[in-house]
Amino acid sequence: MTTTAASPWQPDTWRQRPARQMPTYPDPAPLDAACAQLRQFPPLIFAGEVQALRAQLAEVAAGRAFLLQGGDCAESFDTLDGNAARETFRVMLQMAVVLTYAAARPVVKVGRIAGQYAKPRSADTETQGGVTLPSYRGDIVNGAGFTAAERAPDPARMLRAYSASAATLNLLRALAQGGFADLNQLHAWTTDFVRASPQGQRYAELAERIGESLAFMAAMGFNSSNTPQLREVSFHTSHEALLLPYEEALTRHVDHGLLGSAGGAPGWYATSAHMLWLGERTRQLDGAHIEYLRGIANPVGVKVGPTATPDEVLALLDALDPAREPGRVVLITRMGAGKLAERLPPLLAAVRDAGWPAIWSCDPMHGNTVSTAGGVKTRDFANIVQEVREFFAAHAQAGTVAGGLHVELTGQDVTECRGGGQNLTDERLAERYTTACDPRLNGSQSLELAFLVADLLKAGRRPGGESADKSSPPPAR
Ligand code: PEP
Ligand code: CO
């Protein structure tokens, strides 16, 4: 049986389908208790925000805005002091400024943050020194430490994930609206280690030019006190929809009266984040994860790996977006440098010819993971760059929109991916390798990638071709 738009949907109909990558909780009672508790908690987001994001993503689908989605591979309960979240937010602001300036298009900012706690794994178990334990599946499921106690799935962790998400979201809202994101603070977003890098210098020059424009605008009477677009940013949250009991418990029916000014239809909303996506390992058409995702009103993403066929992608779109609504689905390609140039074009042609307004976004991370000789998981910056270039070239060729970038990053000075302007070598990876899962770009590498994408977007800019519709209200920054 495959998922069809015609079959009735409820937040729990996923339970009738095979579910991959989910922990086996030994005892149903504490699981039910945790879910009952979650059902009593307030939603983390408001449905009107979801509709606002969908409207922004519709602009991305039309080629009038660009999507930037980024953050940790996995967030961790141990780094809840706010520094990690602030640094992710800070580097995304910097990247967005670089992209907006070059492309002259708004950048829709979506963090992999405030809920990115569940991880799919390639093996169910891990063996160290002759001892075999369940794999670490993210802090919402079990602990990373290699002990039987840590690795036992514990449903009470779902309550901690909810609290941690709420705390992080609260900080993000404060940073987005409280003055930190004010465009006049552009220089202050650069951390010391980035300032010293070539990207830091290029950014400082850009900040200088934008500063001159801001001074001009201030002289014309537009400043942070009277122009919210200068003072505040719009920032949304996302995570992989993997742990379905958690998502189900936070799914709420929203009636007309509770949608706010952004409008939209009444219906079921996932309230754990604004946007949810499915990973490469859980996108089976007859599976539980697709079944859950198809019924919620949020924008949804699906990872599309190198083995995906045109028919598979069209079937995914049919299941998730039967009404063909712009801003509903983001296809996140993650094929690997070298493979993408060959595998993506047939998919682009199929979706284009079938007329679906899906957004294509490029994840140049997950198809480029390798191990060093010493067994450390890393990614080569050069491969990341190559996959991004191939993505833009494929879209230029197909006449489709290269709509977004999806990256694992942190603003912090970590040493997890090789290469880049800092030329990080295998020997140096151990210096500050702190990720809870996959290797992330650091602040300097993130900015370097943003400048590259900015150049690609600028090259693709058609004079007069894709500016925002003058009749629509100005987009949120
Ligand atoms: C991820 O985004 O962290 C991830 C696991 O991706 P994928 O499903 O594409 O492997
Ligand atoms: Co990852």
Question: Please, could you describe this protein's structure?
Answer:
The protein has 477 residues and is α/β, with parallel strands linked by helices. It has helices at residues 28-40, 47-61, 83-103, 148-151, 157-177, 192-195, 198-219, 228-231, 244-249, 288-294, 310-320, 340-354, 381-398, 443-459, and strands spanning 66-71, 107-112, 125-128, 131-134, 235-240, 251-254, 267-270, 275-278, 300-304, 329-333, 359-362, 369-371, 377-379, 402-408. It starts with 27 loop residues before the first helix and ends in an 18-residue tail after the last helix. The structure holds phosphoenolpyruvate and cobalt (II) ion.
- Unreliable runs: none
Radius of gyration using CA atoms only: 21 Å
Fraction of helical residues: 25-40%
- Give the CA-based shape: globular
In the sheet with the most strands, the strands line up as 1-2-5-8-9-10-11-14
Number of helices: 14
Kindly estimate the percentage of residues that lie in beta strands according to DSSP: 5-15%
Helix and strand content put the structural class at alpha/beta
State the order of secondary-structure elements, H for helix, E for strand. HHEHEEEHHHHHEHEEEHEHEHEEEHEH
List its salient traits.
single chain; about 475 residues; alpha/beta; 8-stranded parallel β-barrel; two-stranded antiparallel sheet; 14 strands; binds cobalt (II) ion
Question: How is the topology of this model organized?
Answer:
Layout: H1 28-40, H2 47-61, E1 66-71, H3 83-103, E2 107-112, E3 125-128, E4 131-134, H4 148-151, H5 157-177, H6 192-195, H7 198-219, H8 228-231, E5 235-240, H9 244-249, E6 251-254, E7 267-270, E8 275-278, H10 288-294, E9 300-304, H11 310-320, E10 329-333, H12 340-354, E11 359-362, E12 369-371, E13 377-379, H13 381-398, E14 402-408, H14 443-459
Parallel strand pairs: 1-2, 1-14, 2-5, 5-8, 8-9, 9-10, 10-11, 11-14
Antiparallel strand pairs: 3-4, 6-7, 12-13
Bound molecules: phosphoenolpyruvate (PEP) and cobalt (II) ion (CO).
